[in-house]
Amino acid sequence: QERSLIYYINELSRRTADPTPTKVTTFASILAGRALSHCWVSIFVNRHRSELDSI
Questions:
Q1: pTM of the prediction?
Q2: What's the 3-state SS for 1-55?
Q3: Could you count the other beta carbons within 10 Å of the beta carbon of residue 10?
Q4: How far apart are CA 24 and CA 55, in angstroms?
Q5: What is the domain range of residue 36?
Q6: How many domains does the chain divide into?
Q7: What is the pLDDT along the chain (55 residues), one digit of tens a residue?
């Protein structure tokens, strides 16, 4: 699931669509099948910063 989310974020960046925290959290919630906390995206980005093109 995390690989899919990293791919999604990087694809948004490549297409010049801004990968906002709201977009990322929404997509991640769909993948997880549940709501995520408001600080979840910050934790994810910090953990995968080297793999992300932008956020």
A1: 0.82
A2: CHHHHHHHHHHHHHCCCCCCHHHHHHHHHHHHCCCCCCCHHHHHHHHHHHHCCCC
A3: 16
A4: 9
A5: 2-51
A6: 1
A7: 899 999 999 999 999 888 999 999 999 999 999 999 989 999 999 999 999 987 7
